[in-house]
Design brief:
- The chain is built from 7 helices and 5 strands, in the order H-H-E-H-E-H-H-E-E-H-E-H.
- The protein has helices at 9-14, 55-66, 98-111, 129-135, 139-148, 178-191, 202-209, and strands at 87-92, 119-123, 153-156, 166-172, 192-200.
- The chain has a 5-stranded parallel beta sheet.
- It is globular, with a radius of gyration of 46 Å.
Length: 213
């Protein structure tokens, strides 16, 4: 008769110890702790193992390269718009009454809130009494008051191109040759920042303005 082993547990011991969890189920064989993983081979058509920078870092670097620093020159996004042309207001007046009309216009401007330094008055004939008085003290003293920019300044068409721009320019066509009117209106149009007031003969004014002033 074949021998029947009386202790079958000997077969169990031959396999070595086995861990039995508390639940009674057989625990899985422990897996080895993974060591350093080798670098993956590069994919065909792509660069080697050098990894590109994360998108966030690359975007910030591109932004830093595209935008100049605080000390760099500012690049305007769009071309600067040309300055707007001043509004033109005509006050009918004869050559004898043009200077009085200009004075009334200046008074209205100051009453409406304009500061004296905002106003420049140009004459084409006799100079304004204020200008004649100040010029009696010398050319340097006269233009020093212009440079101060704190009062209404009166000047003649012949030297009006020395005046700087002001918010409002008033022209009194109080006589003088046609060339003086053209000069006065041309300079006044280029110096007026917001408003150009012309006191004189409307037909004469329109003919000069229509000539390209």
């Amino acid at each position: 008769m074949p021998l029947i082993p009386e202790e079958p547990q000997i077969h169990e011991k031959a396999q070595g110890p086995r861990a039995t969890p508390a639940s009674g189920r057989t625990a899985p064989t422990p897996r080895p702790v993974p060591g350093p993983r080798p670098a993956a081979p590069p994919r065909p058509g792509r660069p080697g193992p050098v990894r590109p920078a994360p998108p966030a870092q690359r975007a910030s670097r591109d932004t830093a390269e595209a935008k100049p620093g605080p000390s760099g020159p500012a690049t305007p996004a769009t071309p600067a718009a040309p300055p707007a042309a001043p509004q033109i207001q005509l006050i009918p007046a004869t050559p004898d009454g043009a200077l009085d009309a200009a004075e009334e216009a200046v008074d209205l401007l100051l009453d409406s809130g304009r500061t004296p330094g905002d106003v420049l008055v140009i004459t084409t004939g006799d100079p304004h009494p204020w200008a004649a008085h100040e010029l009696s003290f010398g050319d340097a003293s006269y233009w020093a008051q212009h440079d101060a920019g704190d009062d209404v300044f009166y000047t003649d068409a012949a030297v009006a191109d020395r005046a700087v721009s002001r918010a409002v320019v008033v022209v009194a066509l109080n006589g003088g040759p046609e060339a003086a009117a053209v000069t006065a209106l041309t300079v006044a149009h280029s110096r007026a920042g917001a408003l150009l007031i012309v006191c004189g003969d409307p037909q004469r004014i329109n003919s000069v303005l229509g000539a390209g002033v």
